[in-house]
């Protein structure tokens, strides 16, 4: 019997990698649903190639201009995620959410009900709405697997372990293109997008360069694995070979290494312990192992690390504030409206605004509340930057 799966965000890099893995083993999979925001041309090709009968295109202009072509090819096309209730009548084997940004939260919550196992590559959803996600996971008894390389590594290292034995977790960072290097006075978009090890989207590559991505991953780990902030730390491993380290109270230290490609966490989330999970990976890289060279990132270089002391111990809307302010600032930089160094400086300044700090004490109770907060914060950032710069 074929494994039935859904890929949300199939036209992005994570979605592309997921389809690449499935393509090698097409006989064992049936893709029930693909989604995209606006890449209608690409998702049409994907639907044809993998014989997918259900597609979601969120952008209304693209939806309207392409719907006749999809219908002619007997592919059902929808323009929002309420259709999930129509498409699925019982649980499918596997879903992956690769939609970027907080917009990924709503589809996550909707598809959990119909998934035996869900892999989430969307850190914003987890950071802003983990209490909502975890509630749905428990309600529908859905297995959750994180596919960020660091959290996937932690998941593998602590699987089948007593959680009370965990002493400390270490997330590793590449340090980005500017680690221990004298930065130019003016850094171009092209400079900041030159990640030394990974091929990623523009937004996450900029986040990696400022190290705010690692701040987000600390928050993510805190929520997913039910940890305290003091029990999570960051070390820089410039060759990106070591992805996580776990220290246990019994004296054992485990670390996980793999090549810098997302095929590995995604494929393992699809197949888990199955013998069918075969990846064309290289042998042990002795040079990388011999040159792990773990170092602590300096707060003078990566000022966003100051944010770690501001994170509330309990779930709050402050995480939505933080994600949204950073999203807006990175977008301004990519559109050449602000300089690179202003991303971190303005992020630290704006999240400390009195009208935003109050969200530290507000618990997220609904997706509508999270989206309302996000929209308000977007206006605050745009107004402040337009008036001041």
Features:
single chain; 389 residues; alpha/beta; Rossmann fold; Rna Polymerase Sigma Factor, Chain: A; 3 domains; seven-stranded parallel beta sheet; four-stranded mixed beta sheet; 43% helix; globular
Characterization of this structure:
- This protein is of the alpha/beta class.
- The protein has 3 domains: 3-146, NAD(P)-binding Rossmann-like Domain (Rossmann fold, 3-Layer(aba) Sandwich), CATH 3.40.50.720; 147-309, no CATH class; 310-389, Rna Polymerase Sigma Factor, Chain: A (Orthogonal Bundle), CATH 1.10.1740.10.
- It has 16 helices and 11 strands.
- It has helices at residues 13-23, 40-50, 60-72, 84-87, 105-112, 123-139, 149-158, 189-192, 202-210, 212-224, 263-271, 286-290, 318-334, 340-350, 354-357, 367-388; strands spanning 3-8, 29-36, 54-57, 76-78, 94-97, 117-120, 143-146, 166-173, 232-236, 242-248, 253-257.
- The strands form 2 sheets. It has a 7-stranded parallel beta sheet with strand order 4-3-2-1-5-6-7, sandwiched between helices.
- Strand 6, helix 6 (123-139) and strand 7 (143-146) form a beta-alpha-beta unit.
- Helix 6 runs antiparallel to helix 13 (318-334).
- It is globular, with a radius of gyration of 21 Å.
- 41% of the residues are buried.
